[in-house]
């Protein structure tokens, strides 16, 4: 599977090279070979994480409603608990990484994820399902900040060694995650032909492989990583206005991305009379990332710094909402009615490809010494709180019965206004995007 992804990305990267002749032709395979063994391990870990996760979670709501017989409100509550136990506790996982190191936190997260998926496979009562979901969420709150913070730190070192912009490494990390998110549901759909328990156990088996891989390959001590034992990191973080500004801007991107699950289904239902085309639109987003993330990042790296990359991405996302807003008064249906939705997905995805690597690459410049795990976790947790509040407001907005274009125009304004919140780049802080 990794060979297939490398070949696919290699073709996409070679296409990008034609537009930037000043650099020698470079394949994704060559880029991977330039990376340290630790970086390759972490990027493959992200691929495996998402395969295991998305083999189960997309099918959880239906399982809870049909097999377990939960009421709709309780299904929503359980899914919300999973999100809170994951995104909301990222900051805790990041603090633990700074305190104890990457290896023990990743291993603990893998053990909890294995236990959580196995438990979920056998859970038949509401309280057991809730317990399993909380364990699954907290597992990600451990290993995701650990992996993301170390990839960001290694990417900075890679850049400082003269290999190129750090965002190229972080883009490859995003591609691996998106590839896993694409493959995982396909695997889960095949396993559901047996039953949900089989899908859960297969997801647990993926994390067993990850656990064994890290036990064998992850070094006990990573050179350059210093464990911080002093307190006070959270207070300094809350006083770091530039970092909090980045979190707010990144949170507006996440809020926009969340509309794939909130505003977009309503638009697809209106245009097509069902939500069947949604799966094709989600697949379109995944394929775009897998094929074009590296070329887009390379193009941005030649022309934009991190702030400008995020600015361009947020404005593209805003234009995606504006496309739907402009088309809504026409009331198109059928295939023509789906074109604005497809335009929204494309612009949102391209904007994501600019925003995500740039935001993650920016965090090391804003983090206090030795606190990268805490700051990387806080980026997700603070942004998650923005999404929580913003999603509730969006749902209220969609239910007000306003003219069709108004909610989409409001949603377009949010990422556009977030550009003004982005912190100014300090001289000498992390070169180009």
From TrEMBL:
Residues 38-427 form the Major facilitator superfamily (MFS) profile domain. The keyword Transcription does not apply. GO terms for cellular component: plasma membrane. Keywords: Cell membrane, Membrane, Transmembrane, Transmembrane helix, Transport. It is a multi-pass membrane protein. It holds the Pfam family MFS_1. It is found in: Cell membrane. Gene3D superfamilies: MFS general substrate transporter like domains. The chain crosses the membrane at residues 38-61, 67-84, 105-123, 129-148, 169-190, 196-217, 243-260, 280-300, 312-332, 338-362, 374-398, 404-422. PROSITE patterns: MFS (PS50850). GO terms for molecular function: transmembrane transporter activity. This is Major facilitator superfamily (MFS) profile domain-containing protein.
